[in-house]
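Lab notebook: predicted structure, single chain.

Context: the supervisor wants predicted structures on file for every construct in the current expression panel, including those that have not yet been purified. This is the next one on the list. No modifications to the sequence; it matches the entry in the shared construct table.
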Amino acid sequence: MRPVWLMIALLTALSGWACERQRVNVLAYDFRLLSSTCVEIDAGYDSRPGSFTSVGVTQSNLLRLHETLRITGEFGLRARKLEAGIAKQSWFGRPIETDFSVYGERYRYTPDRESSIFAFQRTLPAYRGSLDSSTLHYRSENFGAAASARYRWPHSSFGLAYRLDVNSLVPLTQGTGDYYYYLRDWRDPTRGDPLNNVRTARIIPEYTYRTLDNAEDPSRGVDFRASAALAGVGGNTHTIEPSIEGKYFHPGFRPRHTLAMRIASRMIAGYLNQAVPPFQRYYIGGESDVRGFDSGSLSPIGLLPGQENIFVLDSDGTIRATPVIVNGLVTSLVQTLRIPINRTTAVGGDTSIVSNLEYRIPLQGPLTLVLFADTGTNLVTFPKQLFLSDTGFSDLSGAYPNSSFRRDTALENATRFGASSGVEIQVNIKELGAPLRFYFAENIAPLERSTPPLVVDRAQFPNSATFNQVAVIQNKLFPSLNRRYMFRFAIGRTF
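Prediction complete. Output recorded below exactly as produced.
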């Protein structure tokens, strides 16, 4: 390998152990141990695990069926994944592709940490000063299997897949626990712990149509994809999720110039009196869709009822402590008070629409100048899917009868719109299969910070000093303004 290949692979591996998702391969390299055995080394960026590296081994025709066996280990900033599968490219002399795979994964969701190792600031500025217990953080252990078949024509294909995912989640903050436990039933309520053994079984038909003149750097043509995922049979969640994406490329105003456009939309809704699982809702923003925003920062905002522990203060503002005897020794026990609270929560959308417009101008050598404009809309189309469950509402109302909790999740911003424009410099390195890029984006529509109303009963507090803490906590419950401008280094095109 050339030195630049080694540099990128080493950088990705050392920086943190490095669905429909946006994936960009930074490095794709393979070498053969034997005539039928191949080792593949890959690295890049994916919207789910973030920056990742992977190593895979493939074996061809081991079963004498002209099949390909594979096993792959992937290490990302947010996920660790091991997958094994078998694929066959044709049956009965026809272009019928089949694939079967199983996987196991450990995933950690951390929205206040940038998932790309190439970001200049890994801790997102918008979350500075926010209350840690209010941020959505969780860990999940996942495993599953998928089987698919696809028939190809010269410019189009049709596929059908069945996918089973089993998730067990552990909330890492009080806000995450409140969100998952109090939200309207999004799983079968008869099966005990709502966060363990969450089974999502999907049947997914998909149609694609492609007329691109070049798969890696197209200058004309269309790339279209439409699918619908129906979850239910074999699982305990019930959702339907249609999605559509179209890309169009056309020669620009001068030779070698290219006008590129993309629009992508998707929607998810629960049925049979079930809501969408919170971890399947949409969060957009970042280098793969709206470049002027931090990753996942475009989300509808709702007021979610919950609970929070605060210190009991004396009138002078010092923390109140009670002397107690423990093992014959006198020690001080800090007094706390559990209060009701409205958390300003990024609840995620059930409908998202993203559009991108680029004008690509080749410069000297491997350099390309790109002028771009991105827009993204993430909204709640089905607000009843964010109601509190019967159990959650009765628990909170029983514990705090004088609070002003609402059964519905009050949506402060049911629609989040973001728009950015800017300029990008791409350095095309043939060996990497994707360009290095620096982009500067202006955030045309920045997000605004909001403070939820108080729901506490003043009579619950022993004095004004203790009560005044609540206003301070409420002011820290949600991230502040997004940055107006963003300068970023990334790898691979947005589309």
